Amino acid sequence: MDWDKLRVFHAVAEAGSFTHAGESLNLSQSAVSRQISALEESLNVPLFHRHARGLILTEQGELLYHTARDVFAKLSMTEAMLTESREHPKGPLKITTTVAFGSTWLTPRLREFLQIYPDIQVSLLLDDSELDLGMREADIAIRMTSPRQPDLIQRHLMGFKFHVYGHVSYLKRRGVPKTVQELNDHDLIGYPPDVRPPIPNINWLLDAGDPPQGSRTAIMRVNNVYAIYRAVESGLGLAALPDYMVEGSRDLVRVLPELCGPKIDSYFVYAEELRSSKRIAVFRDFIVRKISESAF
Q1: How far is 47 from 50, CA to CA, in rounded Å?
Q2: Counting beta carbons within 10 angstroms of the beta carbon of residue 212, is it exposed (0 to 12), middle (13 to 18) or buried (19 or more)?
Q3: What is the pLDDT of residue 136?
Q4: If 138 and its partner were Cys, which of 96, 128, 211, 230 is the partner (CB 3.0–4.6 Å)?
Q5: pLDDT for 206-220, tens place per residue?
Q6: Torsional sign, CA 160, 248, 105, 292
Q7: Among 259, 224, 272, 266, which Cα is nearest to 244's?
Q8: Same domain, residue pair 149 and 181
Q9: Is the model's pLDDT at 96 over the cut of 90?
């Protein structure tokens, strides 16, 4: 197969249209279309179903796309490792973690990392679902569960706890609960029960104490821990939040301090192929150091 045509095919399969692929490749739509037609002719199979709403891969196209994606992922990894100096870390570094951890704890600390390593170009992908590190959707993941993918290197980072928090404006308006049973009379914010959460047992607050499981209802449910945090900040109600989110906050108050949720372990994860990467090593050491400096 012609390498240039395969590169164009990969771009079209990723973009879903000739026009968008042409923009990423700096080619005209007609030039992209000609390359795809020539590739289909050389293979003697159709690769796309063409219709008014866009392009859909055929069965043969899906097979070629998965292979091409794997090839380009490996090439991207090799390119990054070839251009990286062992003594001077540089190059792209794609990091993924949950929206909550990335938004509140990690992002504010990246400024210091980039000041120390100005030749590393960081991309931060915040996603509560697990990106595929084997396919190079990211180089590093900081996850709140042990990875399920094989052939990944993992290091335990820290265990953090959940406590109940409320904004001073809410507590002034509704009072501070003195017992777990008094939570029944408060506005609680939870996570939707029919959505897979980023951590296990995320709605423990609704079941805490003596009442039967599920008897305590939430005034609102949000499928994002960071959004729950912002709801608490707005004075909407009480919620279980990880302690790292409220580190240093003056307006969020821990209530019922003896009431503690399940401990959540976090992991630093990357692909086996990146074991010798200097960029991975310096970022791992930086994260470990910043965690040791944290108060939670």
Answers
A1: 10
A2: exposed
A3: 81
A4: 96
A5: 888 765 555 688 899
A6: negative
A7: 266
A8: no
A9: yes
32 CB-contact burial (10 Å; exposed 0-12 / middle 13-18 / buried 19+): buried
Containing structural domain, residue 125: 84-160+265-293
Query: Which tens digits make up the pLDDT trace of 242-256?
Result: 998 888 788 999 999
Report, as an integer, the average pLDDT of 155-176. Answer: 93
CA distance 170 to 187: 9
Residues 272 and 149 in one domain: yes
Single out the residue of 223, 231, 232, 227 nearest to residue 199, CA to CA.
223
Which residue, of 44, 64, 82, is where some domain finishes?
A: 82
Last residue within a domain, chosen from 50, 82, 114: 82
Q: What is the pTM of this model?
A: 0.67
In a shared domain, residues 155 and 169: no
**Does residue 36 sit in the same domain as residue 177?**
no
**Residue reference for tokens 């005209």:** 28
- Say if residue 70 is in the same domain as residue 106: no
Number of domains in the chain: 3
Are 156 and 287 contained in the same domain? yes
What are the residues facing 264 on neighbouring strands? 160
Residue 105: give its domain's CATH number.
Answer: 3.40.190.10
Higher pLDDT pick, 71 / 171: 171
Q: How far is CA 34 from CA 29, 52, 286, in A?
A: 9, 18, 48
Pairing of the two strands 140-143 and 91-97: parallel
